[in-house]
Write a structure and sequence with these properties.
145 residues; alpha/beta; 4 helices; 7 strands
Length: 145
């Protein structure tokens, strides 16, 4: 069965990690979302980069993500972070999608803030560091970098 997948990663390391996961999604109908124009082929959506200190930008980004989720109607939302991925996960789940959060490889000592927020709402919550795994999540099954 081919699934509709929405794969979301902010620019920089989040995007690099998401690109490392794409081969696992090849057999599915995948749309990509990022905060930077990534020059990818296929369905790609660029959304505003925002954080908790930028309230208006955050609201605009949330609206953009909501529109993408409504347009795509994904079966699965997967994200490597950060804020756009968190919002895509929340909106995706609201509309019945299964959700996967892969916390950033850069967060060695503790989970990212977005990861801590997203984890309890993810169907599969992963960390890339074995020492950060714990019962109830996140799980460690390896690193993508």
């Amino acid at each position: 069965m081919t699934l509709k997948v929405l794969a979301v990663g902010s620019g920089g390391g989040h995007w690099t990690q998401l690109m490392r996961l794409l081969p696992a999604l090849e057999q599915h109908d995948t749309a990509l979302v990022s905060t930077m124009d990534q020059g990818v082929k296929g369905r790609f959506y660029r959304v505003l980069d925002a954080n908790q200190r930028e309230k208006w930008a955050m609201l605009k980004m949330m609206a953009q993500i909501l529109l993408v989720v409504l347009r795509e109607r994904p079966h699965v939302v997967i994200s490597t972070g950060a804020a756009p991925g968190y919002m895509a996960l929340r909106f995706g789940r609201l509309f019945g999608a299964r959700t996967i959060w892969v916390d950033s490889f850069a967060n060695v000592d503790q989970l990212s803030m977005a990861g801590r927020l997203a984890g309890p709402h993810a169907d599969l919550w992963l960390t890339q560091w074995a020492h950060l795994a714990k019962p109830g999540g996140p799980e460690f099954i390896g690193a993508v970098l």
